[in-house]
Design brief:
alpha/beta; 11 helices
């Protein structure tokens, strides 16, 4: 009992308010000299009446602002931990709509991201298709990061990465993918052309279909290859994708080529 009393006294002593210039004592309690409201109050602990610290009127708004700031900091930390667990590539975590030129294709993806709660609720996905280097992966990652900014779990991965896990871990990986409200799968069509790869791709897409959650797929394949596949194995995959995802064409020139030309020019300059 003495130990408990000692601990209580220690807590009460540490919680006592600081006496600032202008503060004063009234009825045995410390009052704030600015707002003239008590900074101490009496609280009963068992049979004893103790004087403990409390907030005066002018301290309450400051405390509330500090509390909200701490909550926001903790929420941002939580989101960044979530982002790190959902997007393995550090560079991709920085892909945002604010950091890119607003092309018509990107604006449509931005509009999708702005209505993401509705898309998740109604299971509306996207199929971003077009030539290499037209910004499909960037746009898909922007959507995922916008989702994560709002605390919506969004996984970004690719079909080749999934296929690289091996047969024994495949079912576990596919099951884990459906824990995310939004799934971004990059590079449909880049997978190896064998029975294992085709079956795995179908399983991933079909399990997503069964989960009732949206899917975003990127591909360099032309839409005609998806609507008129060369055999039944591909048809069942692409039919599922088109059922889940609205096609959105990314046109324009390869955006990687100007950077490649710039790098080559720099290399020639520095090497003479």
């Amino acid at each position: 009992m003495n130990a408990l009393t000692d601990a209580l006294n220690t807590v009460i002593r540490k919680a006592q308010p600081v006496r600032n210039p202008g503060d004063y004592i009234q009825d045995g309690l410390l009052y704030c000299g600015a707002c003239r409201t008590p900074k101490q109050c009496r609280v009963r602990f068992g049979a004893a009446l103790r004087v403990v610290g409390c907030q005066c009127s002018c301290a309450a708004p400051r405390y509330e602002a500090e509390r909200k700031a701490e909550q926001q900091r903790q929420e941002m930390d939580r989101i960044e931990r979530l982002r790190a667990s959902c997007i393995a590539d550090r560079a991709v975590r920085g892909y945002t709509f604010a950091s890119a030129e607003e092309t018509p294709d990107l604006l449509r993806c931005k509009a999708y991201a702005q209505h993401l709660s509705e898309a998740v609720r109604e299971n509306r996905g996207l199929l971003l298709w077009g030539n290499t280097g037209t910004g499909k992966t960037f746009a898909a990652a922007c959507i995922a990061n916008a989702a994560l900014d709002r605390g919506i779990p969004a996984m970004v991965t690719s079909f080749p990465k999934i296929l690289g896990v091996g047969w024994d871990a495949r079912d576990k990986i596919i099951s884990q993918l459906n824990r995310y409200k939004l799934l971004v799968l990059d590079d449909l069509g880049a997978e190896r052309q064998n029975d294992y790869a085709l079956e795995t791709v179908y399983r991933v897409v079909d399990e997503r279909y069964k989960s009732g959650l949206p899917l975003i797929v990127t591909t360099n394949l032309p839409l005609s290859a998806l609507t008129k596949p060369k055999n039944m194995d591909y048809q069942r995959i692409y039919d599922r994708v088109l059922e889940l995802c609205t096609p959105l064409y990314f046109g324009g020139e390869n955006r990687r080529r100007p950077k490649a030309k710039e790098n080559l020019k720099w290399l020639r300059e520095v090497t003479g």
